[in-house]
Amino acid sequence: MNILDKIIAFKKTEVAERSSIVPVKLLEKSIYFESAVVSMKDYISDPEKTGIIAEFKRKSPSKGDINPSASVETTSIGYMQAGASALSILTDQEFFGGKNEDLVTARRFNFCPLLRKDFIIEEYQIIEAKSIGADCILLIAAALEPARLKELAKFAKSLGLEVLMEVHDGEELALSVNEYLDLVGVNNRSLKTFDVSLQTSYDLVDRIPNEFVKISESGISRPDTLVSLKQVGFEGFLIGENFMKSSRPHQAAYNFMNEYRELLGAAMGQTTEK
């Protein structure tokens, strides 16, 4: 079994246990359940914003502990003050050290789109996402059959949530793209081997239909990489570990985003001159 197989096997047990303890009717009583979502698609597409989805995660299967004592409140507020367009909050505890309360905390202190970053395999998790204040959910093509992914995306849309589908190669993209998606992300890190290659994004960008907001995810550590990715058609960039490995993630994000703005401004100026 690769790590993705292990995570999905664990999720099946976890969701069964959680749904038996906290029924859907209770989730639907949440103060967030009837709230309108903040559109991640709109925020990422806004040319006045950076397009950066700044991620909060304490650990990962590939890196182990990254920043186990980081504060959700301090980091999420700092990310937004630095200029992030949206936040990604890990809610998986077993493998990434997150929890639902992290997203609830981020929601309390930030009026911006929140992505619930988890391994969603059941409708229950989507209802749960809405109940804790998420605006967008992640559906991973490598973890779901195309027909099942489409069912879950349609269900999320029925609750008003937006959907980010994550792919790792052209086959996943071709098989799983459907009309219920809002954003399509290319994960440059293989969930099976953890190898990282930005070439994955460059190879797939033109194969993603233009009706979807295009996101490049993982392995982004330099501001000039964002400029290159933006020039080929990506509007959004999910960055987590690069910020979280700092003792002050929000400060790392601030420095990164300032440099990105300067580089992007210079690149656009050169394009205009040509």
UniProtKB/TrEMBL annotation:
InterPro entries the UniProt entry points to: Aldolase_TIM, Indole-3-glycerol_P_synth, Indole-3-glycerol_P_synth_dom, Indole-3-GlycerolPSynthase_CS, RibuloseP-bd_barrel
Record bears the keyword Ribonucleoprotein: no
Name of the top EC class for this enzyme: lyase
Domain spans labelled Indole-3-glycerol phosphate synthase: 4-252
PROSITE patterns on file: IGPS
Record pathway: Amino-acid biosynthesis; L-tryptophan biosynthesis; L-tryptophan from chorismate: step 4/5
EC number: 4.1.1.48
Alphabetical UniProt keywords: Amino-acid biosynthesis, Aromatic amino acid biosynthesis, Decarboxylase, Lyase, Tryptophan biosynthesis
GO molecular function, one term: indole-3-glycerol-phosphate synthase activity
Catalytic activity: 1-(2-carboxyphenylamino)-1-deoxy-D-ribulose 5-phosphate + H(+) = (1S,2R)-1-C-(indol-3-yl)glycerol 3-phosphate + CO2 + H2O
Protein's recorded name: indole-3-glycerol-phosphate synthase
Source organism (scientific name): Belliella alkalica
Name of the gene this protein is made from: trpC
